[in-house]
Specification:
The complex is a heterodimer of chains A (about 260) and B (about 375).
Chain A (H helix, E strand, L loop, with lengths): L1 E5 L2 E3 L5 E2 L6 E2 L5 E3 L1 H17 L2 E7 L5 H10 L3 E5 L9 H13 L6 E5 L10 H9 L3 E12 L2 E8 L2 E8 L2 E5 L11 H8 L46 H14 L4
Parallel strand pairs in A: 1-6, 1-8, 6-7, 8-12, 9-12
Antiparallel strand pairs in A: 2-5, 3-4, 9-10, 10-11
Chain B lengths: L6 H18 L3 H7 L4 H9 L18 H12 L3 H20 L2 H12 L5 E4 L15 E5 L2 E12 L6 E7 L9 E7 L5 E3 L13 E12 L3 E2 L5 H37 L1 E2 L2 E2 L4 H29 L6 H31 L5 H11 L6 H18 L3
Parallel strand pairs in B: 1-4
Antiparallel strand pairs in B: 2-3, 3-7, 4-5, 5-8, 6-7, 9-10
Helix pairs in contact in B: 1-4, 4-5, 4-7, 5-6, 5-7, 7-8, 7-9, 7-10, 8-9, 9-10, 9-11
Classes of the chains: A alpha/beta (about 260), B alpha+beta (about 375).
Chain lengths: ~260, ~375
């Protein structure tokens, strides 16, 4: 199977601070890491290759230093990488990003599957996965928690929903996003690390992927941020303390008082 | 201190450290408590390519040497030597094949060991043959195209878990230590079974079992080198592996210091952190100085071994002896610095102190190491021209 994994370089969430005045994230001096949800996507791609053969290519759109997360994927076991990087991409929202990644992915030969993490931990939109599927004109399954089987140009997967899961059959090629329940991402290997170290990543420009100027970067982004704020804490709450038994008893009493039970 | 590691060596150190901190540290207390073999961690180490550090690339390894292996062992030992011994003992089982195996034997077994797909173990000690390996009672008798092995090996690290064993047995008991030979025996060979898992003071997650041979028939081609070479195989193997024990000791001592310094900065008595007291500072200073001296010696010896000199027995014994005595002292002091908390299982240093003791015992007691060093001094002096 030829698999592409879309990855993103994000600020390490454990180090993030919020600027109280603007309500936005302080990015300066914060270490950049592979988006944790994307690590599950990389792991699943490597597992599929180990089972079915083929090739895993990690793809990202970002500034030149985003090459570091691509190296991380190679250290884990990805075969190849694609860095889509151009000043013209700056300011892209999920719409422009999906368009740009889609064009990059079209340059890969005979893709069977595109895997993305369910969302990035900085923007938290979960829109790029489905956006990429639209741009490629491929079927899409979100929140996959297990790939059950791959057979005859199809794939059977379980997708997480609020109160359980659904079993979905999808024809390949397809795009999926995965949740953390799907696997435990592996540690990098020594051979992978050495390979990553010697990797010379050549970025693809807007021109190289054939992007139209008004569809990329800020110009191609319909999203307008009006205001960023932290929601006020909700009032009118009561905390029930005590042993689990006492808490349960008090909760039932309360629910009866409120005539819910 | 900066030991001027190459980029590759630094990568090995970082990777082993990452695995130790993220995967081993959270489970070490539970593994110790349950005396559970760390299979999950062995799989992670295998996937990370760490089992083949000292094995040549042509046999599926990374092509490094004793020094590269020591770096990985030290990082793992910093959090748990029960785990690191399970990792390192596979190397102990592999060295006889690496040093004395035929090309065919190397091609068959080393790639499996280098990939971590199968663990190895080394079987020398017996109930009546510890420091005195000449007391070995296990025999191997050639019968047609097979050797028939009988006897029992005791306290074998990775026993039962490993699949590839290198075992010392007497092919000509009348010749004493010159009558010993080394064999490769695979788990599952009829007549080869294991005793119960031993209950130990420390390194409790590691597996220690008897290897029991009852008319166990192994093909003639499983003989390593020639008949009568068994003790040379054993001694050369231990020469190579002893700095690994030194690295376990350095890692363990460093791990104890890490815990202690952190604790002493937090713990307050008489309205100040206890690290502000000279009594504590001086203990920590000694612990740290001794550990750094041990590290410098172990690194120097490992690099010396990798230069492939003719005889490394003395240097190798020194690395094991000095570092393991340091680890014992440092872990005892670590418990002292932490006082009552140090004695409690809730904190890791009591385990470190229990674990440290084995380092002065296995792969040759520290008394035997002194014998080796003493014998080398006599030999050197006798060889000098007057």
């Amino acid at each position: 199977m030829n698999i592409a994994v879309c990855v993103k370089q994000v600020p390490d969430a454990s180090e993030v601070k919020i600027d109280k005045a603007t309500g936005t994230m302080v990015r300066e001096g914060v270490p950049a890491i592979l988006n944790p949800f994307d690590a599950y996507a990389v792991e699943e791609a490597i597992r599929l290759r180990e089972k079915h053969g083929g090739k895993v290519t990690a793809v990202t759109m970002g500034p030149p230093q985003a090459g570091d997360v691509l190296k991380h994927t190679v250290a884990m076991g990805a075969d190849d990488v694609m860095l889509i990087s151009d000043r013209a991409f700056a300011g892209a929202d999920t719409w422009a990003t999906s368009y740009t990644l889609g064009l990059g992915l079209k340059k890969l030969d005979s893709l069977d599957l595109v895997i993305c993490g369910k969302q990035a931990i900085d923007g938290d939109t979960a829109q790029v996965g489905p956006g990429v599927a639209e741009n490629l004109g491929l079927p899409f399954v979100a929140y996959v928690r297990k790939i059950v089987d791959v057979y005859n140009g199809k794939m059977k997967v379980e997708r997480l929903i609020e109160d359980g899961y659904e079993v979905v059959e999808v024809s390949l090629p397809a795009v999926i996003t995965v949740v953390k329940e799907i696997n435990t991402p592996r540690m990098p290997s020594l051979k992978g690390k050495m390979k990553a170290k010697s990797l010379d990543i050549k970025p693809l420009s807007a021109e190289a992927i054939g992007a139209e100027a008004d569809k990329i970067g800020l110009a191609g982004s319909p999203t307008k941020v009006m205001k960023v704020f932290s929601p006020p804490p909700k009032g009118n709450r009561e905390r029930i303390e005590g042993t689990p038994n006492e808490q349960a008893a008090r909760l039932v009493e309360k629910l009866r008082e409120m005539k819910i039970l | 201190m900066d030991y001027f590691l190459t980029d590759t060596q630094a990568e090995i150190q970082n990777l082993a450290r990452q695995i130790a901190q993220e995967k081993v540290k959270p489970v070490r207390a539970e593994l110790d408590e349950k005396e559970e073999f760390p299979w999950e961690i062995m799989k992670i180490l295998a996937q990370a390519d760490l089992f083949g550090l000292y094995i040549p690339e042509e046999y599926g390894g990374f092509g490094g040497g004793a020094f590269e292996n020591c770096l990985a062992v030290e990082e793992l030992s910093r959090v748990c030597i029960g785990v690191s011994v399970s990792f390192a003992a596979s190397g102990l089982g592999a060295y006889p094949i690496l040093l004395f195996g035929s090309d065919e034997q190397k091609k068959k077994y080393l790639p499996q060991i280098a990939s971590g797909q199968r663990l190895a173990a080394f079987g020398l000690t017996e109930a009546g043959a510890g420091s005195d390996a000449g007391g070995t009672r296990t025999t191997a008798v050639l019968d047609g195209n097979e050797y028939v092995i009988n006897g029992t090996k005791q306290w074998i690290t990775n026993g039962g878990e490993a699949e590839i064993y290198t075992v010392i047995a007497m092919t000509n008991p009348a010749k004493g230590s010159r009558g010993a030979s080394a064999f490769i025996v695979e788990k599952g060979t009829p007549g080869f079974s294991f005793g119960k898992k031993e209950k130990k003071m420390g390194i409790r997650s590691s597996a220690t079992r008897e290897l029991v041979f009852e008319n166990c028939r192994v093909p003639k081609e499983n003989l390593l080198s020639r008949e009568g070479m068994g003790f040379l195989v054993a001694m050369k193997t231990l020469d190579k592996s002893r700095p690994g024990i030194g690295s376990q000791a350095v890692g363990l001592a460093q791990g104890a210091i890490d815990e202690c310094v952190e604790y002493a900065r937090e713990r307050r008595q008489f309205d100040q952190p206890i690290i502000s007291f000279q009594a504590i500072q001086h203990m920590l200073a000694d612990m740290s100085t001794q550990t750094e001296a041990a590290r410098a010696l172990v690194y120097a010896v490992a690099k010396f071994i990798d230069s492939d000199p003719k005889d490394v027995s003395k240097a190798s014994a020194m690395a094991k002896l000095f570092a393991s005595d340091v680890a014992m002292k440092v872990t005892v002091d670590a418990v002292q610095v932490m006082g009552g908390y140090g004695y409690m299982r809730e904190y890791p240093v009591e385990k470190m102190m229990r674990d440290a003791k084995i380092l002065q015992i296995y792969e040759g007691t520290n008394q035997i190491q002194r014998n080796v060093i003493g014998a080398a001094l006599i030999k050197e002096a006798a060889g000098k021209k007057k």
